[in-house]
Design a protein that fits this description.
Elements (H helix, E strand, L loop, with lengths): L1 H38 L3 H8 L16 H7 L8 E7 L4 E6 L4 H4 L3 E3 L10 E5 L21 E5 L3 E14 L9 H6 L3 E7 L7 E14 L2 H5 L9
Organism: Proteiniclasticum ruminis
GO biological process, one term: proteolysis
Pfam families: Sortase
């Protein structure tokens, strides 16, 4: 009986050790597979997805990353909500963009926060989960610096932004995702949001970026590493 309990304790200990790693592997695998899917979409397919009425924008249903949530929601991805890619070369971020906020979308990429937003116009806010693993989701967002290039694409056009500010705000500061912020800035902007380490802190971390230019889609240009040149 003592041996049985000893084996049971060891098994339980190993489960506690490896469960977070399994969770992260599931998320990374989901992201990689979803990036491949959206990269193969035609611009016409993405335009069709942008018109989807299935997208949700209920922030109250979003939960922090958990083992059970990851395993349950990984299979619930609606590929008809994929509308592009978000790439930040300097922090090696390359994740899909989904239309709408829900747990499945946020476990596979970034998610739009308003029904009416358009790349390269007004304020384009995207939400993503914070992760301790910087290779997953918005885990590396806090490493983005002012001057870093951020690119969005709908597989027809690349929209290039340059980070101008990083800020932490209360979770009640919903004004920061509205178009009024772009009007105050004087040009189109991008707002990338994640929890400030945890949703329980009541704070949200934002990277704000100015829209600078757009050009025809190319996979090489999408991932090209470069610092923004003010003379461009």
């Amino acid at each position: 009986m003592k041996k049985f309990f000893a084996v049971l304790l060891i098994a339980f200990g190993l489960l506690l050790i490896f469960t977070p790693k399994i969770k992260d592997l599931v998320i990374q695998n989901t992201i990689n597979n979803t990036v491949k899917v959206v990269a193969d979409y035609t611009p016409e397919k993405i335009k069709e997805n942008e018109q989807s009425e299935e997208a949700e924008f209920d922030f109250s249903i979003v939960e922090d990353i958990s083992v059970t949530g990851t395993l349950l929601d990984a299979s619930k991805i609606n590929k008809d909500l994929l509308i592009g890619q978000l790439v930040i070369p300097n922090v090696k971020m390359n994740i899909p963009i989904f239309k709408g906020i829900n747990n499945a979308n946020l476990l596979a990429g970034s998610a739009t926060m308003r029904k009416d937003q358009k790349m390269g116009q007004g304020n384009y806010p995207l939400a993503g989960h914070y992760s301790k693993d910087k290779n997953i989701l918005f885990g590396s967002l806090m490493d983005v610096k002012e001057g870093d290039i951020i690119r969005l694409t709908d597989n027809e056009t690349i929209f290039e932004y340059v980070a101008y500010d990083v800020t932490t705000v209360p979770d009640t500061a919903v004004y920061i995702i509205e178009d009024q912020e772009a009007k105050k800035r004087g040009n189109a902007i991008l707002s990338l949001m994640t929890c400030y380490y945890s949703s329980s802190t009541g704070k949200r971390y934002f990277v704000m970026a100015d829209f600078k230019t757009s050009y025809p889609y190319s996979e090489d240009l999408l991932h090209e590493e470069a610092a923004y040149n003010a003379s461009n």
